[in-house]
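Section: Multi-chain targets

For targets with more than one molecule, the full set of components is provided together so that the structure can be written out for the assembly as a whole rather than chain by chain. Components appear in the order listed by the source. The example entry contains three components.
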Amino acid sequence: MASGTTTVEHAADAATHGAEASGAGMPQLDFATFPNQIFWLLVTLVVIYFVLSRIAIPRISAVLAERAGTITNDIAAAEELKHKAQAAEAAYEKALVDARAEASRIVAEAKAEIQAELDIKLQKADAAISAKTAESEKAIAEIRAGAVKSVTAVAKDAAKEIVSALGGKADAKAVTAAVSARMKG
Amino acid sequence: MATEAHEEGTGLVFHPLDQFIVKPLFGEGPIHWYTITNATLWMALSVVAIIALFVLGSRGRAIVPTRTQSIGELIYGFTYKMVEDVAGKDAIKFFPYVLTLFMFVLFSNYLGLLPMSFATTSHIAVTAVLAMAVFLTVTIVGFVKNGTKFLGLFWVSSAPLALRPILAVIELISYFVRPVSHSIRLGGNIMAGHAVMKVFAGFAAVAVISPVSVGAISAIYGLEMLVAGVQAYVFTILTCVYLKDALHPGH
Amino acid sequence: MEGDIAQLGQFIGAGLAGIGSGAAAIGVGHVAGNYLAGALRNPSAAASQTATLFIGIAFAEALGIFSFLVALLLMFAV
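Its structure, encoded as tokens over all components, is:
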């Protein structure tokens, strides 16, 4: 029922008597339009196929490959730079360690030098001090000896005077002995 | 025959299928096989859109892609991965073929959703040719690649021997139903969506329910946007599944 | 009443065929729901099965489309 009366009249009628046109059946089953649709569909598919397979797909796959290559290269370059940076860091660390060792060595050296100098100076000072001490002790001993002598003489004189003042005759020898005895005691 | 039914009752006039009528673009006259019709126009527009996306969009061949180029690359990568994953590595030589089908169906579906446009994929003539192309390719490739071993597809060697003839009949039927379901799924989905929208549009003639009608059309339109993409995807992935059967017929 | 018994039968048949769309909806919901349940149990395997999900939905939906087609044929083409 649908197929025979289709095409133009229906298209024209569709505007005015839409119900009639649709009443004639589904447009999908209007077999008169099939050759037309199939022909143009095949044309369309062939055109799309050639556009895609001749132009689009090679181009896009080339772009994708190029991009993948670029990315790989960039990653490799970045990896290399990273290695370089790591090497530089290692070198820096090594230099730092060396410098530290050098510095501590210098410090130790200086310390040892200073210590040695200090020791010598101390020894010298000690020697000087002990010499001075000995000298002073000697002087003190002399002074003490002098003082004892003087005291003895003074005591003898004083004892003689006292004895003579008391009217006795001072025996020099006895007085000296007595004073000496007293001095000892 | 069903004419009077439309004008009964409320007086609403529905002709949801008028949008699918193929008519000559220039002048009037019978539709010959070479006549330029609205179907021709929208097929041509889909070709133009594909060329714009894939040829003009990627003409810069940029390492850092422009927006259009990256959409093209996205579709390329998506389809390539689908062919590779579903149909296997040796199906890659069918990639241009699969991409052609996918692009045509996708663009026809979406262009068909434009208001006042013509949905070429809603016609069974179009989808049947697409499905038959897939069916013939799969069958021919299957026999060329595997010879008579391709018939092993119907002889389920893992099943008990007694069941195998029955299974063979079922497999054979399901094999020949493939192009039918493949084409009707696509055409029916698109036709159904467009017809439903037209039906809701018919309700818009009544002032009281027109807001509901407009809301419903918007909702259905959103659904149809999804369906258009999903049906193109499903058509392509089923093509890949069938190709896998042709290349590796073992179960 | 105008019209004939054949037309009555067409419309009744078309309406009955429309039920098939609802049945297909149940089928699609079943597929998607089971996929979601499985995906929540084992989310790592979900992504690899999206293609299977769509194939399943397509097969379920195709049968609903068949019934829709039968309805349309009864309405407009018989």
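DSSP finds seven helices and no strands in chain B.
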